[in-house]
Amino acid sequence: xxxxxxxxxxxxxxxxxxxxxxxxxxxxxxxxxxxxxxxxxxxxxxxxxxxxxxxxxxxxxxxxxxxxxxxxxxxxxxxxxxxxxxxxxxxxxxxxxxxxxxxxxxxxxxxxxxxxxxxxxxxxxxxxxxxxxxxxxxxxxxxxxxxxxxxxxxxxxxxxxxxxxxxxxxxxxxxxxxxxxxxxxxxxxxxxxxxxxxxxxxxxxxxxxxxxxxxxxxxxxxxxxxxxxxxxxxxxxxxxxxxxxxxxxxxxxxxxxxxxxxxxxxxxxxxxxxxxxxxxxxxxxxxxxxxxxxxxxxxxxxxxxxxxxxxxxxxxxxxxxxxxxxxxxxxxxxxxxxxxxxxxxxxxxxxxxxxxxxxxxxxxxxxxxxxxxxxxxxxxxxxx
Length: 384
Hints:
- The chain is α/β, with parallel strands linked by helices.
- Helix content is 36%, strand content 13%.
- It folds into two domains: 22-262, 3-Layer(aba) Sandwich (Aspartate Aminotransferase, domain 2); 265-379, Aspartate Aminotransferase, domain 1 (Alpha-Beta Complex), CATH 3.90.1150.
- Strands 1-9-8-5-4-2-3 form a seven-stranded mixed beta sheet, sandwiched between helices. Strands 7-6-11-10 form a four-stranded antiparallel beta sheet, with no helix packed on it.
C-alpha cells in the first residue's frame, strides 16, 4: 500500500492545554470587583457544588492536591506506620506519606490499566500498615472494590488519589463518594482546572471540621466565617488555635474559576472520551503499538490522558516532536528516584512497562483534524 501524505499542521500541538472561555474571565472579574479575594463565598459555593457533584457529604478545598493528600493522611493517622502505594504516579502522592512521617510501601501495578495491583497490595500488608492509597491512573479507576475488601479485612483506611479522575464513575458510583477520603487536583492541566488547587471529599463530620482547621494554620474559625458572625458588628476577631496547622487554603479567585469549570466538566470529559475513541479507532490496527484501556463494565473514565506503549518509545517521541507534536511520559516510577531509594523494591511489571509509555496530546480543545494529524504522523512512523 502506498503511504498517504501527511496533512501539514502549521502550529505546535501541546500534550495538555487548559480549556476556558469568557465565563471564567467574568467569574474572576466578579471576585476582583467584590473586594473579597481570599477564601470566602465562592469557596463555600464551590465546596458545596463539588460535594453534590460527586455525591459526598463534605468537600474541603485546599491549594493543591499535594496538600489534599498531606492532610488526608494526617487525619487518617498514618504517622509511624506504613502506607501501601503505587510507584506509577506523580511524586506528590508519595511525598505526602513522608510528610506524615510514615513509610511508603510500593506495590506493583496491573499491566493492563497501570493501576495498583490488589494482589500485590495483599502481599504487602503487615501489622504496621495503616492505609492504602489508590491512584486512578489517567482517570481509569483502580479496582476499588477489591482494595476496599482488603482494607476492611485488615482495618485499614483507603485514600483515593483522584488527581486524574474528576468525573470518573466506578460501578455506578462517582469517584469522591466511595472511600473515606478522596483527593482531587485542579492543576492547570487537569480536567477541572482552577490555576491550582485541590479538594478532599469525605463523609466524616469530625474529619471535615479538623481538615478545615488544618488548612488554615489550626484556626477554628476562618476569616469568612468570622465576617458572618451575627453576634459581632460585621466582623469578629475572636478565634482559637486548637492544633498546629498549615497554610494551604484556597481563595475565591480560584474557586470562582472552579465553579465555572465544574459546570463544564461533563461536557469536557465527554469530549476527552471522544478524542480517545478517535485515537483508538485510528491506531487499533498497528501491531507495534499497544493502546490503553479506556472503557470497562460499570466504568466511565474522566479520560485525563491517553497513554500508548511501544518498544521504541523515545524514537517515536522524537518523530512526533519533529512534526510539532508534543508528548509526555507519565511517570518515572517513584521508587527509582533517589529520594525513594530507602524504600525501593523489585516491581517487575512497573519496571517493564514504564520504559514503553508515551502520553499523546489530549485536551478538550483538541480538534478532530488535529487528532487525525497525530494519527497520520504515528501511522507514518518509518522504523516500526
